[in-house]
Protein: Phosphatidylethanolamine/phosphatidyl-N-methylethanolamine N-methyltransferase
Amino acid sequence: MSDSHPQTNASMSEPETSKLYDLWAKFYDHTFGALVHKRQHRALKQLRHQPGDRVLDLGVGTGMTLGHYPRDMQVVGMDLSPGMLAKAQQKVDEQGLDHVQLLLGNALETPFADHSFDHVVISHTISVVSEPNKLLHEAKRLVKPDGRIIVLNHFRSYKPVVSWFERITNPIFVKIGWRSDLRLEECLEGVGLRVLYHFKMSTVDFWQIVVLTPRMRSLSPAA
Structure:
């Protein structure tokens, strides 16, 4: 395994994660639905899409993001858990989301060609995978040079007391499926993505919306 994709010992392997989230699938929406609904809606507002744009939702889970996508986009959702994906497919069928295609697969190693998508969305997934840095490498490979990568996730705080709590409780959170000690900088190290901006919906929010682009410098003004 290359140094540019360091694996943390704090995360489960992908097969372990798949099995755990198959169990979560039965009650995931009831547990987290109300908590993430507004954040996901706000996150997807950052896409600034054009009609016909293709977007890849890596770690689509039970499909809670799917209803927030404009219907003039082409949406591909991928998840490692068959149980979670079955719940997502149920939403697609019930809501008539004809613009959505769902695929079973590993977000760290997707089958798509380079620059296949106008945008990539990673909602509540980067702290779940075993290699967060590799996930962003894959997202960068898949998105077009002028596209956006939207990340919605909890990241470890810089407030000393909160950071300490997130670190010592991490072993507990890992057992239920995600890391609580993940730094945004850890994910971005060596990837070559630029942070356009990031924000929280309130000062006490634990989750951040991060907007990334592969373009490292702004375009020069038109002549």
Notes: The domain at 14-213 is CATH 3.40.50.150 (Rossmann fold). The chain has one domain: 14-213.
